[in-house]
Amino acid sequence: MSITADHRPQMSVEEFEEIAAHTPETVTLEFINGKIGVKAVPDGDRGAIIMWLLRRCMQSRPELDLHIEQGLRVDAYRSGHARPDGVLAPIAHFAGQGEWADSQGALMVVEVTSYDPDTDRRDRVEKPAAYAEAGIPVYLLIDRDTCETMVHTEPEGGKYRSIRSDVFGANVVIPGLGITLETEILKQYVR
Predict the structure, then answer these.
(1) Distance between CA atoms of 74 and 132, rounded to whole angstroms?
(2) Residue 5, domain member (yes or no)
(3) Residue 12 phi/psi, 5° resolution?
(4) How many domains is the chain built from?
(5) Is 43 helix (H, G, I), strand (E, B) or coil?
(6) What's the start-to-end Cα distance of the chain, in Å?
(7) Which domain CATH number covers 66?
(8) Global confidence as pTM
(9) In 17-102, at which residue ranges do the beta strands (DSSP E only) sit?
C-alpha cells in the first residue's frame, strides 16, 4: 500500500484573502501550494538587514524601489500568495494593485531567514519554487542560519536553473540588475 501526499488546497484563494484581511497586524499570513502559513514577524536584526538592502538597492538603482512586504500572487492560476521581505520593481510599480499584487514586473524578491522551524521548508523549498514558477528573474535569500547569500536566477519549469552561494563577507553581484552587495556587515546580524 502506498501513501500519496494530499495536494488539495486547504481553502480557496478568496477564502484565504478574506481571512488575511481580518488578521491582526502582528500576524502575517501566506498561501503557498494551497496551504496557509504564518510568516514570522521580523526581529531587530532581520529588520536591520532589510533596511541595509533597501539602502544598497536605492544607491545602485535609484529608478527602482525595494517594496517591503508587498503581497504577491505567485502560483499559476492565482492559487498562491506570498509576502516576501522585499520586492525590487520600478518606482510605483505596485500602485493601485492592493494588498496582493500581480508578480509580473517584479525584478527580484528577497527573503531573510527567520529563526523558526518553518524556515527550511518555506524559504529554501516552497518560496523558490513559487517565485520561479511566477517567472521572477531573481530570488535573493539571505540565510542567517548558514551565513550565506543565495542568488537564484534563470527561472524555468518551476525552479531556478542557477543558484550561486556566497558566504557573508563576499561581494555578491546580482545578475542583470547592476547591483553589487558588500555583505561583510551581515555577520553582525546573526546569532
Answers:
(1) 9
(2) no
(3) -80, 165
(4) 1
(5) coil
(6) 45
(7) 3.90.1570.10
(8) 0.79
(9) 28-32, 35-39, 64-68, 71-73, 81-82, 86-90, 100-102
